[in-house]
Design brief:
The structure is a homodimer of 333-residue chains. Helices cover 26% and strands 23% of the residues of chain A. With 333 residues, chain A is an alpha+beta fold. Chain A has 2 domains: 3-176, HIT-like (HIT family, subunit A); 178-330, HIT-like (HIT family, subunit A, 2-Layer Sandwich), CATH 3.30.428. Chain A contains 6 helices and 15 strands. In chain A, helix 1 packs across helix 4 (249-270). A 10-stranded antiparallel β-sheet of chain A has the order 3-4-7-9-8-13-14-12-11-10, sandwiched between helices. Chain A has helices at 122-140, 177-193, 197-208, 249-270, 307-312, 321-330, and strands at residues 3-6, 13-16, 55-58, 69-75, 90-92, 95-99, 103-108, 147-154, 166-172, 212-215, 219-222, 233-237, 275-280, 295-300, 315-317. The longest helix of chain A is centred in the last third of the chain and has 22 residues, at 249-270. In chain A, strand 10 and strand 11 form a beta hairpin. Strand 2 (13-16) of chain A pairs parallel with strand 15 of chain B.
Chain lengths: 333, 333
């Protein structure tokens, strides 16, 4: 059973995921090599290589866990957290831990092994967004879970271990410290201004235009003012909404269009960079609707995070956000 | 002039370092290649390729900025922050910024280009520690600075751009958010227990022994209970002290011995991994002596930080700290 352990000084929880079973020898350099010709567990025909699906979108009357799907969601075969059991919070002297309970699922985004997310038709991307929506609604019913992070690692340097296009979600029994800080920041601003801080950011960015990359009827894409990374990009819904899963149909359509637009621009601007994409949404069962505002963050992996950043969580970004935005804005697809 | 910009939601400052001058085209994949046969600016005889030294340890009566040194400290030629000027705090609509004022220096640890830090004699490592001490005392006199981070990036994957052994320091006009949170955590514990939390951790770890890697008269090296990364290692002074620069001579001797011991073990255990090493010490001019406890954190770079971590600052560590500690403890040098 994986464990959640808390750093006693800073209060940060970590997942100690023994199920992933990395032994010391696994880290030696020559164990990093990929096995060529390995069978892809995410390709049609290999459904038996994944745990049974929890959701699939199928064109015809094909059977679960067999070919005929456009999209499948399966539990991660090597989950960071385990779906069964109680939290069993306990101390260990000065330290605190609980069982590593949670859901860890993989969204297999397309049957096509070699398709890049950015090359998928908008309709397929919209379906991926609907699968996120459907899984969040389902997992929200489990009262043990307090937060879901949906994320996508594209490329080995960004942490992807399987090439076949996929994203992941992790449902957690606690609200991560960084998410809590973000919510608290929004709450403080709201108590001062009685407005959502993200709505104010959207207004200012839209008016000035200098950090705007693209805009459509429902979404604004910007280089954030205090970008941690070069070409960090946020996609913000223009309509105030705290929960990703509460978006309307036309919003998912416009989001699919915007995601494809941004990722195509990024590919052109930076030569198909590896990237991490995350959806920042509200914790479950908390009253945050007035002041939190869900959004997407995309972080191309262009620089190595080094000692200074680990030591301080203080990032050095060598590219002006305004310059990154202009470059992305002016790129012709 | 570089800028410090504040994320308006979470309150995190970032350095937008235009002096480093990364243009969008610099990130395209083929621009990552190293220039072979490039002249090393840190080698003896090439002193003219660095800014003039601010400190050097020399054997004979050799002149500054000429060969004959054992160790040199120079300003970074491409500094993330600029040493001159005032902070000039100002708003930009909803956003906040100030001038990127600070010191960014490079400690050239040895004249030998090919020496690994872990292969240096203990006496040389001790001298490196003394150079940290001397620079901190000097920079502390500048009342604009509130915090210094000393760090070492070893290997390209850990962010090093020059092979010649070196470490760096950055003096900042603000206390980074993560450091502030650590100090606050220590303060809260102290107000509850009237004891230093790190002293209590040292006591518990030393008694149980399961996460101890090595111990000498002045230092304890452990795998921390809630390690973020596999083989993360902390070196803690056994004697309570808030400031790195207030250590005694025998402590620097024992620290040099411990650092070499740990890095040799890490090289043997993990095949010369890239790593980041940071010294966590107290902010200047704050009354934290009772409850803060300086220490060193070493993070070998074995896994890629991915979307989940960026989205939540919630780390997944696939190796049990107890297993990492045992492996490091049992390695025979």
């Amino acid at each position: 059973m994986p464990e959640l352990r808390k750093d006693p000084v800073i209060g940060r929880w970590v997942i100690i995921s023994t199920e992933r079973g990395k032994r010391p020898m696994d880290y030696r350099p020559n164990n990093f090599e990929r096995i060529a010709g390995e069978i892809c567990p995410f390709c049609p025909g290999n459904e038996g290589l994944t745990p049974p699906e929890v959701l699939s979108y199928r064109r015809d009357g094909s059977s679960p866990n067999a070919p005929g799907w456009d999209l499948r969601v399966v539990p991660n075969k090597f989950p960071a957290l385990m779906i069964e059991g109680g939290l069993n919070r306990q101390g260990e002297g000065i330290f605190d831990k609980m069982n590593g309970v949670g859901a860890h699922e993989v969204i297999i985004e397309t049957p096509k092994h070699d398709a890049a997310f950015s090359s998928l038709p908008e309709k397929d991307i919209e379906n991926i967004l609907w699968s996120f929506h459907d899984r969040v609604l389902d997992l929200k019913k489990d009262r043990r879970f307090k937060y879901i992070l949906i994320f996508k690692n594209h490329g080995a340097l960004a942490g992807a271990t399987i090439d076949h296009p996929h994203s992941q979600l992790i449902a957690l029994p606690i609200v991560p410290k960084q998410v809590r800080e973000e919510i608290d920041g929004c709450k403080t601003y709201f108590s001062f201004k009685e407005r959502c801080i993200y709505c104010d950011i959207i207004k200012q960015e839209s008016d000035s235009g200098i950090r705007v990359i693209a805009e459509n009827p429902s979404f604004l894409a910007i280089s954030p003012y205090a970008s941690r990374f070069p070409f960090e990009t946020w996609i913000l819904p223009k309509n105030h909404e705290a929960y990703f899963e509460s978006s309307q149909k036309h919003e998912y359509e416009n989001l699919a269009r915007m995601m494809k637009d941004i990722l195509v621009r990024m590919d052109l601007a930076l030569g198909n960079p590896p990237y991490n994409l995350i959806i920042q949404t509200s914790p479950f069962h908390e009253l945050v609707s007035d002041f939190y505002h869900w959004h997407i963050e995309i972080m191309p992996k262009l620089t190595n995070v080094a000692g200074f950043e680990w030591g301080t969580a203080f990032y050095i970004n060598p590219t002006l956000p305004e310059e990154a935005a202009k470059f992305m804005r002016d790129i012709v697809a």
